[in-house]
Structures are given as C-alpha cells and as structure tokens.
Amino acid sequence: MLRPKGNIHVPTHQKFCRILATLGPASDAEDRMLNLLEVGVNGFRINFSHGSDIEQKKRFETVRRAEARFGAPVPILADLQGPKIRIGQLKDGSQKLSFNQSVLLRCAVLSDRDGVLPIPHKELFAVLAPGDMIMLDDGMIRLRIEENDGETAKATVLVPGTLTDRKGINIPGRRLPISALTEKDRKDLDFALNEGADYIALSFVQCADDVREAKKLILGRAKLVAKIEKPAALDELDDIIALADMIMVARGDLGVELPLERVPVEQNRILRLARAAGKPVIVATQMLQSMVTSPIPTRAEASDIASAVYRGTDCVMLSAETAVGRHPETAVAIMSRIIAQVERDEFYWDEVHKQVGQPESVSAAAISVAARHTIDLLDCRGILACTKSGSTAIAMARERPHAPILAITPHKETARQLAMVWGVSPVVTDDFSTLEEVIERAPDLLKKYFSMQPGERAIITAGVPMMVSGTTNMMQILTLE
Questions:
Q1: What are the Cα distances from residue 123, in Å, to 177, 180, 186?
Q2: CA distances from 107 to 81, 124, 228 (A)
Q3: How many domains does the chain divide into?
C-alpha cells in the first residue's frame, strides 16, 4: 500500500472523524452550544423521545444562532422516537418481581393489582409464543412466556427486579407487525422538516420497507439515517443500506436484544457493508457513558471510540454525555483527542483502507480512486471538490484519502449535510459557472480554510458542465503560488 510521503496535513481545528452531540438541559444554551462546536462538535442531535414542540423549536433556533456565530455549517439530526414498546401504568407506580414468580401480561394501559403487568400494545400479543423471552428495562428484568391467548399471556420471572411505569420492552428474535413510524413520529417528522432538519433518524428499523415508507414522506427534504438497533434489520441489512442515506449503529437496543458478544461483531459488519456501499456511518450509544457523572472516561471507553475510528466510521455520537451530563465540553474534548491520536497513527491508514471494498463503476468513483492515489504519490495537502448534491464529496470521502476535503457548494443544505461526513469541510460559495472560475478561486479557498502554503499541491475535482449533479468527470493537480 502507498503511504503518504509527509505528515498527514489536517488543520488544527479539523479531524477526519466527526462528532455528533445530543442536545438536552446540559447543552441547550447558545453559549454552551458554541463551546461544544469550538472543542470539536460537528453537528447536533435533537432527540424527539423527549421534549415538547416548543422546546424542540427553541433548540432548532438556538443551533442556527450558534452556527452563525461559529461561522461554519452545522447540521441538525432529528431523531424520531419510533415504536418503543413500553409497560403501562402499574399499581403505585412500581412492582417488585421475584425469581420464579408467575405474572400475567395483559393488553391494557394500567393495572390495579400486583402480579399483572399492563402492556398497551396489542401487536405484541399477536406474536408472543411459549418460550419467548421478554426483556424489561433494557434487559434488567427478564420473563419467559408460558402461555398466550392473544389478549393475556402468562410468564415466569427469570431475572427479578423492581419494575416501574413506562419501562421499555424488548422481545429478542421477534419481528413486530408495526411500522417504524408511529402517529407521533409522523407529526414530529413534519415538524422537524418544517424547522429545517438536515437529517431524519428513523428508529427501530426492522426491514427495508420501513426505510421506503419514511423516504416517501421526506421527499428529499432531508437525508435519512437508518438506525440499526433491531436484530430483524440485520437480516435485510444490504437492502436497508442501499436505500438509506446514512446508517447509525445504535448499540443501545441492539445490545439488549442481541447477545452482548455479538454487538461488536455486528458493529464491524455494518461498518464494512456501509463503507463498501459508500454510505456514511455513525457509531452511537454509551461511548463515554461514565462521563455523564465523571470528569474522566474509563480506559475501555477510550478504546471503544478508538476501535470505531480505526474501522473508518464517519461519525461518533454522544447521547446522555452532552444532553444531561455534568461535563459536556470535557466529554467532547476528550473524544476529539482520542480521534486525533488515532488519526496520527500510521497504521490507522492501513486499517481504514482495508474496509473500503470495490468502488462502483461510475465516473465519480473512478475520479475518487485516482485522486487518493495521486495524493499519496505527490504528497498533496488538500482536495477541493465542487459539488451540488454532495455526492462528489461523499464519493471522495469513501476512499479515505490522506488529505482533508474542502467541499464547495452553492447550497447551505448540502453544506450542512456534508459536515457529518468523514474528512469533509463544507463551504457555501457562489455558484461557479465555469471550471476556469473554480481554478482561479481554488488557491485562495485552500489557503483560507486549510492554511495551505505556496508550493504545496492540492487536487481539484469537478463535473463539466459545472454544478450538475452526477457529472463528476474531471481531476486537476494544482500547485499553489
């Protein structure tokens, strides 16, 4: 494998792998958002499982104000709640379950006596069979189904504990006959699109049809992120990846329904298949979970982040760490330091290039492969990619070149979406009408955004005619003067 001749040049404020931070009480203030951006955040997640429309609208508005102050595109990912199956209301709000206790599951909203667990989801009773395992509260309590008549089911407690209202329910190995979009999700989707969300994250995807349904509703107004958190989705992974714009490895529920030892194996498989398909990937859940309360992470958490970065993930995500944690800026700063350290490791490049796979037989892919090898041969320090829809920059990022990518686009929506992609620094520019205009402006842009110096070389990629989606067919080597 070719290696770069000099040190990899990444501007001090950049890193190749991106960071997505979840907003919440600990990070909703505009100054706090700006602080997070300055220490390494590239985009914000708004979790629609919590908060009113008024609170969410305020978050959208605050992000846009922080973005204007920061001076770079900042994407917003609206994460839909999805059909989370939950326990109803219990007598006195909680119930203690003992080992080997017999309990009755009833299709109801509430229960007024001990030993009866209300589950207001008739779809669940349609698929339950004797021998099925029921996991409550993220697997902390476990039941085995003994009988089911369609409206009530008898179960035995295998792992005891105290159950409280509204705790989640998981049924490993069962595909529930429900859409990934609830009525709440449809309302939240319209709201998020009207507020200008750049990405919509679809929760609890079970099959490719779930992705098709969501894309019909989105109609290209935002990019779709398919969250892989149900074992059923693994059976249709290739089709889901082909349909989605981005993939999220959501390890929370995936880790409940799968044996824990399978989660890292499936994470790597998802990363490998998505990267081969040229689809950006987010790795999420509990990456720095201890930092919700602690000012420093565990060594295992640092290694977990490093592992995802070595595998070439586009983005890593923080959830409770920035939403409700005590040390949101510190968590982001530590994550940034881990990413930067991995990316300085010479063997990092061997690892990320192992994962690429064969490119498509299209001109954009051919240009991207040629650009990566040219960068290695000539020690180029940057790439300037002209793009309208973002596909040119994404194709370039798929190859994991040894230089950062400056994606220039006339569309702020495209720029925001590209800010979540590995190695891409998006900039909104005028709509260039000729290649000559791009070549004339390129040196100033590369000097301004990548601090490139006279004598250093860069690569320009574009499509002729200019700024027409899907026409990338040109690469030029530029030496700065």
A1: 6, 13, 19
A2: 22, 9, 28
A3: 3
